[in-house]
User: Fold this.
Amino acid sequence: MITRKSSDEVVPRRSVLARAVAGLGWAALAGCEGLRAARAEERKEYEKTEEKTGDPPIPSRNPIRITRLETFLVKPRWLFLKVHTDAGVVGLGEPIVEGRALTCAEAVREIEPYLLGKDPRRVVHHWQAIYRHAFYRGGPVLTSALSGIDMALWDIKGKALGVPIHELLGGPTRDRIRVYAHARTPERLLELKARGFTAFKTGPAKRRPSRYIETPAEVAYAAEKFGELRKAAGNDIDIGIDFHGAISPATAKLLIKALEPHQPMFVEEPCQAQNHDIMADIARGTHLPIATGERVFTKWGFREVLEKRAATVLQPDLCHAGGITEVRLIAGMAEAYYAAIAPHNPLGPISLAAGVQIAASIPNFMCQEQVSLGEGYLKEPFTVKEGYIDLPSKPGLGIELDEEAVASKVGHDWRNAETYDADDGSVVDW
Assistant:
């Protein structure tokens, strides 16, 4: 239960009362009409000020303690986290690795004993402790668990202070946040364009899994299909293309060359992101922006991308890269290399809310990915106007789960696809 101080308790801190009793002892004035009148005047001033600005729900000196961490699977493939406190404030996070939701949930449970009884407002301290106290650091599962927890702690801190997270990160750097949607066909793109989107992402059109060296027919087919999207959208619309790391470096170069006349907004993961030297070689061979980051973790992973000039658009995922704390640092590093930040997010509305807070607070933001604006999950879903969503103004992440709607979506058994080459049965990238 959140408690507030009464107006009587805050009176001694107010300037009107201080002026009324300046130079006089409290003992001499106790009970006098002048003191009571001064208190009444100050109470009115306080109440007027509170109506305009509101006081923080929890004064910074008041203790808050974490009482438990709760995770639950949410359709279609997400994992939501609630961090509960003894003050009644609950923080939301999304600690997920797609296809490994149960593994992430267990990782959160293993971290829980460290957090129990601690003040959630020491966000960066807890990030350091959770990350550095693990002898085996980083990796997708542990960093994703940490990412979701970090989001939730920032949410609690913002709610406790009564401000959006971006205010805690230095205040807004922009008035609204550009978002993009996914579209694979001209019909879908035009439908989303009518709903207000002005930026999109697609994948390369394929009639079969890509080979190490592709035929001219397959390269031409992919370029032709992207060209159809460009024709439907027009030249004033941005369209990125995501290779999903499923294309060999040699074929990626052929595809990029064929796509250059259509000027994609970026080419995402043109090959597997595990070898940044190869990505850098591809980047040097084209004028198109290369993007990567959904499978890169923490500042240490992104340092190598930047130093090797492997990409000019970084796509850290708030659910994987280290949460709000770490992505803010990654954005600062990227700024020094004149690289833009386009947060990756094929996940849920909590992840989107965290990305929006980052987008609102950094100077080198480009565009925010989304697949769900929160309909059926949030009491007030995000809305798109002319390609943008409004700057969040509510405390913390600025969202509230629709508990009744979410309850009907609890539980899933989503797994990654298992894909094989139809010609010879070998494993192919998904």
Q: What stands out?
A: Residues 1-32, 45-53 have pLDDT under 50 and may be disordered. The first helix runs from residue 7 to 10.
